[in-house]
Design brief:
With about 575 residues, the chain is mostly helical. The protein has a domain at about 15-240. About 80% of the residues lie in helices and about 0% in strands. The chain contains 24 helices and no strands. It has helices at about 5-35, 45-80, 85-120, 120-150, 155-180, 185, 190-210, 215-220, 225-240, 240-245, 250-260, 275-280, 285-300, 310-320, 325-360, 365-370, 380-405, 410-435, 445-465, 470-500, 505-525, 535-540, 545-555, 560-570. The protein is globular and about 65 Å long. The model is unreliable at about 265-280 and about 565-570 (pLDDT under 50).
């Protein structure tokens, strides 16, 4: 394996660590969501909608915080190529920008919460205050995450995310089981605050130890205004792609559903009744849709694979454009960029297609068994949503490539168009679909996202092939093999589910369905050489998959497609 290939593997491994930690924490959160969504144990569809609606407000605001930390990580990573002092200036600028934005959102929400408390609407006031604090903490947290990303310590970010998520969700379990309804649904919002607090604490400990410069000096000291403007400008470009990474593009559906269905109890202040429709939805439609959003969040963890690309590509590109670098160094880093993109694109899409086969193949059984019969009204929209999330995940992966190569404007325009299309299409489709049956409105959000993300994928794919040196056929091969493997696995599973052994009978039949889907997909992918030797080596480095790696290597070496793949690698 060449040096560039080893570096590319490290980037993919870094993304994989963030992904796996997110999936582990997300699994704990999923268990909490399953229990909370059930009417016999938790809040039921209506109560779950209340919790999800309030969380969606916070998540939507976090897109800006995430965009800023992407900018911080890019600028710090590029600066470390030349000097630690310049990196320190960018880190200091990031701290100023994050806190400025945090206060801009916090102050009006805090004033609104005080106004609500004074007008004897303590419940509404408490929720708005919770959201205000959570948004400020998100900006504080993402400043530190950006710095960790800048020094490419994604292993530490993975640890931070896992510890904070599990700690926060543990509090959610305590509230769910010890606090009686309906107070438990509102009190569960505390978890939105506890997560960022835990993250900030752990990040502070890591940064104090691993930064190449003093953490205190990155907070206190003079700041170059030009650096602040430069970092802020790029951060705003990056904020639009972040609507995918942090899930804001999905919570947008929840926001619109709350406008078209029963708004909830009126509050004493007429002028704020419209606001109450955002924070107190009662329709089952919103609760059912919120389940889609939760699963989209787990599946969207694949987008995290793209995160390490931004600083890694930025550093490599900075060397290729450096006047002091030798021609050999420039050539080596051009090859490095190609390997980064190839490895991340293949790994990201293969993981995405794996999620698709599980969610699509088990959609009805999953909703029926885990959440309750009331949720099965949305199992077809759920399938559409899963495919749409796959498109948006790849959109973000390519956008990360664009950001890393200094094409943040193209990424921002692409994802901005995706956002704008959803803002227009979702309410339009809700109006059209809910005419005959309110449940038909569940199709509105997923179809709008699918159409918009599909069109944007065509555009971003064009950018990808134009701005990187990898052959177009390579990307098409990855897409084709993953899609074909997923389609065949789903068809096999569908036949068994419908005609031989229904998966929704009990938990054991559900698990059997998952095994059938997973084994079918993996075998077909190996047969088509959708996985190669580099993927097998990556599996060996990931504990739970190391045992499977030996069998996978045996299958792939007997594949009729393997020799052709090997010849390509040799030519490269």
């Amino acid at each position: 394996m060449t040096e560039s290939e080893r570096s590319a593997e490290q980037v993919v491994k870094g993304g994989s660590l963030v992904l796996i930690s997110g999936l582990l924490a997300g699994t704990v959160g999923w268990i909490w969501g399953v229990l909370a969504s059930r009417s016999d144990i938790g809040f039921g569809a209506a109560g779950f909608g209340i919790v999800s609606m309030a969380n969606s407000v916070v998540i939507s605001m976090m897109a800006i915080a995430g965009g800023l930390h992407q900018s911080f990580s890019k600028k710090i990573s590029e600066s470390l190529v030349t000097s630690d002092e310049l990196a320190l200036k960018y880190s200091r600028a990031g701290f100023r920008i994050s806190h400025l934005f945090g206060f801009v959102f916090f102050i009006p929400l805090f004033i609104l919460s005080i106004f609500l408390f004074m007008n004897q609407d303590s419940l509404m006031g408490a929720i708005v205050l919770t959201i205000a604090i959570a948004i400020y903490l998100a900006f504080f947290r993402d400043n530190f995450i950006g710095t960790l990303g800048g020094i490419q310590r994604f292993d530490l970010i993975a640890t931070v995310n896992f510890m904070a998520m599990v700690g926060s969700i543990s509090i959610g379990f305590i509230i769910l089981f010890l606090v009686p309804p309906p107070e438990n649904a509102t009190l569960a919002l505390i978890t939105v605050i506890t997560g960022p607090i835990l993250q900030i604490f752990v990040e502070f400990l890591f940064l104090k130890k691993d930064l190449p410069f003093s953490l205190k000096s990155s907070i206190i000291g003079e700041t170059d205004k030009n650096i602040i403007i430069e970092t802020l400008k790029y951060g705003l470009y990056c904020a639009l792609p972040m609507i995918i990474l942090n899930g804001s593009i999905y919570t947008l559906q929840t926001l619109f559903y709350s406008l078209f269905f029963r708004p909830g109890p009126a509050i004493p202040i007429p002028a704020l009744q419209q606001l109450s429709s955002f924070l107190f939805p009662e329709s089952n439609i919103i609760g059912i849709s919120a389940i889609f959003i939760g699963y989209a969040g787990i599946m969207n963890a694949v987008a995290v694979m793209a995160w390490p690309l931004v600083p890694a590509l930025s550093e490599a590109k900075a060397i290729t454009e450096s006047t002091t670098a030798s021609e050999e160094e420039k050539s080596k880093n051009e090859l490095l960029i190609d390997d980064y993109v190839k490895s991340s694109f293949k790994t990201g899409f293969n993981l995405t297609s794996f999620f698709i086969i599980i969610y699509v193949g088990l959609s009805y059984s999953l909703l029926y068994l885990l959440h309750g019969p009331e949720y099965t009204a949305g199992y077809i929209p759920f399938i559409i949503q899963c495919v749409a999330v796959a498109f948006t995940s790849i959109d973000f992966l390519i956008s990360a490539v664009l950001m890393g190569l200094g094409e943040g404007r193209k990424a921002a325009i692409s994802i901005g168009t995706l956002l704008g299309a959803n803002i227009i299409l979702i309410p339009l489709f809700i109006i059209l679909f809910k005419t005959n049956n309110p449940n038909n409105a569940l199709y509105a959000g997923p179809i709008a996202l699918l159409l918009a993300a599909g069109v944007i994928l065509i555009i971003t794919f064009h950018y990808l092939t134009k701005l990187t040196r990898n052959p177009r056929n390579y990307y098409l091969s990855v897409l084709g093999k993953g899609s074909l493997s997923a389609a065949i696995a789903i068809l096999i599973s569908f036949f068994i589910d419908k005609f031989l052994y229904p998966y929704h009978q009990n938990i054991l039949s559900f698990l059997l369905g998952g095994i059938i889907l997973g084994v079918s997909y993996l075998f077909i992918m190996l047969f088509l050489a959708g996985y190669d030797e580099d993927d097998i080596k990556l599996m060996e480095n990931i504990g739970p998959l190391s045992g499977f790696a030996k069998m996978a290597r045996s299958i792939i070496r007997h594949s009729p497609f393997y020799k052709e793949k090997e010849d390509k690698s040799t030519k490269t």
